[in-house]
Amino acid sequence: MSEFDCDLFVVGAGSGGVRASRIAAAFGARVIVAEAKELGGTCVNVGCVPKKLFVYGSHYRHDVSDAAGFGWDLDVKAIDWSTLIANKDREISRLNGIYGRLLEAKGVQIVRGWAKLVGPHEVEVAGDRYTAKHILIATGGRPWVPEIPGHELLTVSDDLFHLDAAPKRVVVIGGGYIGVEFAGVFAGYGSEVTLVHRREHVLSRFDSDIRAALTAQLEASGVALRMSRTAASLVRSRDGAIQLTLDDGSTLEADLVVSAVGRRPLTSGLGLEDVGVEVDAKGAVVVNDAFQTNVPSVYAVGDVIDRVQLTPVALAEGMTLARNLFDGQSGRVDYTNIATAVFSDPPVGTVGLTESEARAKFESVTIFRSTFTPLKHRLTGRDAKTTMKLVVDAASDRVVGCHVLGPGAGEIMQGFAVALKCGATKAQFDATIGIHPTAAEELVTMRTPVG
Question: Cis omega (within 30 of 0) on the bond before 50?
Answer without folding.
Answer: no
